[in-house]
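User: Hi! I have a protein structure encoded as tokens and I'd like to know what sequence might fold into it. I'm fairly new to this, so please keep things simple.
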């Protein structure tokens, strides 16, 4: 029998000293994922997927590509969660195509469909668009938006609908529909624990889309002036602040930074 532990120092029955093989492997993978992420350019525009974020100041930080607090970097586990979300989306697309839907999720050159406005400072990339398929009572084309979510979120979405249970997702598709001139979106929620699928057809709400677009303009104006919009809360113990990756930076200086103190990427000296 081949002894796969030969030379490893591992002895059956004797507790390992130092980190276990599993811990070391995990650390190697997570460090590699963190390095990969660090090497990718930060997003320096306001993303449509974020416009439903309740804190306008956080959106300013994001649009300015301000570095997140050092202790808030995405862990390897979270980076793995992000990647599995993409894999689940690929599977759902395959299943829908198998079921007879003509779902387009990329141009011939492989790039995603989407929109870009305000000189590229407000952008969004859709998961796809279904241009034809079985008769389900809605006309085509219909946008396709996919989220792979944990069981509790999935259950809330099924019970209360996307608008109430996941307002950031709802806002995201409203903006997509507005800029891409499509009247409805097929929202698909995949339960990552059970692989159950839930579907909701979200209708375009022009008033809400206008408000969201105005919000984007307000954020970009503030960022363009090197200013920050108001915080979502009066104290840092607010639940959204405790989860915010800019918490320390945001509350380190109680007063708003002076005009020009934080410059957006396109205004920083090279
Ligand atoms: S810490 Fe709170 S107020 Fe500051 S950016 Fe984050 S969510 Fe907004």
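Assistant: Happy to help. Inverse folding works backwards from shape to sequence: for each of the 270 positions I chose a residue that suits the local structure. Here it is:
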């Amino acid at each position: 029998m081949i002894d796969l532990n030969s030379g490893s120092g591992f002895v059956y029955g004797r507790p390992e000293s130092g980190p276990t093989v599993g811990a070391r492997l995990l650390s190697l993978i997570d460090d590699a994922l963190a390095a990969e992420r660090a090497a990718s350019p930060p997003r320096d525009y306001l993303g449509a997927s974020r416009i439903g974020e309740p804190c306008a100041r956080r959106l300013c930080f994001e649009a300015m590509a301000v570095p997140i607090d050092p202790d808030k970097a995405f862990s390897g586990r979270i980076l793995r969660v992000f990647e599995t979300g993409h894999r689940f989306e690929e599977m759902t697309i395959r299943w829908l195509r198998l079921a007879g839907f003509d779902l387009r999720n990329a141009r011939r050159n492989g790039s995603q469909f989407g929109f870009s406005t305000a000189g590229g400072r407000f952008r969004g990339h859709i998961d796809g668009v279904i241009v034809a398929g079985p008769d389900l009572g809605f006309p085509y084309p219909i946008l396709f938006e996919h989220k792979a979510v944990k069981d509790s979120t999935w259950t809330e979405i099924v019970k209360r609908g996307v608008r109430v249970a996941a307002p950031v997702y709802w806002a995201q598709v409203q903006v997509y529909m507005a800029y891409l001139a499509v009247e409805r979106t097929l929202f698909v929620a995949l339960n990552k624990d059970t692989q159950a699928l839930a579907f909701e057809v979200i209708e375009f709400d022009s008033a809400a889309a206008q408000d969201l677009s105005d919000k984007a303009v307000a954020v970009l104006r503030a960022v363009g002036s090197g200013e920050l919009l108001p915080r979502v809360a009066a104290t840092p113990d607010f639940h959204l602040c405790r989860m915010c990756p800019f918490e320390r930076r945001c509350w380190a200086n109680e007063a708003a930074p002076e005009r020009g103190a934080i410059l957006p990427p396109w205004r920083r000296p090279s």
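A useful reference point when you look it over: The CA atoms of residues 118 and 217 lie 8 Å apart. Feel free to ask if any position seems puzzling.
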